[in-house]
Amino acid sequence: MRKSLLHLLVIVPVLFFVACENDDDTTPPEEVVTQLASTTYDLNSASELDVNGLFTIIKNSNNTTTLVIALTGTINVAEHPAQLRLNTAAEAGDVALELEPVSSETGRSSTTTDAFTYEELLDFDGHVNVQYSSYESDGLLVQGDIGQNDLTDTQITYDLLEKDVIDVSGNITFTKRVNGEALAVISLNGTPSGGSHPSHIHSNNAATSGPVIFTFNAVDGTSGIGKSNVSVLDDGTAFLYNDLLTVDGYINVHLSDSQPGVLLAQGDIDVNN
């Protein structure tokens, strides 16, 4: 008996050691991450190049979020830096999150993060920029508003008529955002190339004239385009899309800051239209 017991005492530790060793070698199963929901936003061309695309936010089962950029018409640059930024594209803003650069070969970028939840991004006050290259002076390739800044299908357009400079005319379109603010886009034909043209909403109608109540971003003379976010008047009073529908006002586009008396285009808006 003693011999047998000793034999058992020798064997049992060996078996225990082998069992433990086998346990240590076992690889835990890899976590399977599934996609629970997604939302997609447009990325529009921000240059003369024919490039546009989509920005998709994906909710993952492991509490991460994947941000996918997919562009069409990419150009022959190794990669395009991309960022999630604060504020609307018209306002610009600081970087909230650096995204993986977009490959010029695939036109795609994928960034998985836990910095923002899916729900936070759906209400995010921000936009996405994709640059032409790592040199900021090369400008933007595409950009698009996301979250609460996303554009709805609700919009209204007013004509801007020729004034003091021959053959300059166009329109302004206000598009309602998800958060009730508005994107204002002034589009003029015939503007002097290289110029920068101050633009405002004035109170009253054009025939009566009145003081400035809202200042737009200047219209670029080369493109004839000026984009602004509309959320508050110059005095700080809230001024949303629905307020535009009842405002007693008109729009002036001036030749320059140094020649404010020279008007490129003018047009009455809402109650005066």
Automatic annotation (TrEMBL):
InterPro entries attached to this UniProt entry: CHRD, SOD-like_Cu/Zn_dom_sf
MF terms (GO), sorted A to Z: metal ion binding
Biological process annotations from GO: superoxide metabolic process
The keyword Transport appears for this protein: no
One matching Pfam family: CHRD
Domain CHRD, chain residue ranges per copy: 169-262
SUPFAM superfamilies: Cu,Zn superoxide dismutase-like
Keyword field: Signal
Record's keyword annotation contains Signal: yes
Signal peptide: 1-19
Stated family: Belongs to the Cu-Zn superoxide dismutase family.
Record protein name field: CHRD domain-containing protein
Organism: Bizionia paragorgiae
Lineage of origin: Bacteria, Pseudomonadati, Bacteroidota, Flavobacteriia, Flavobacteriales
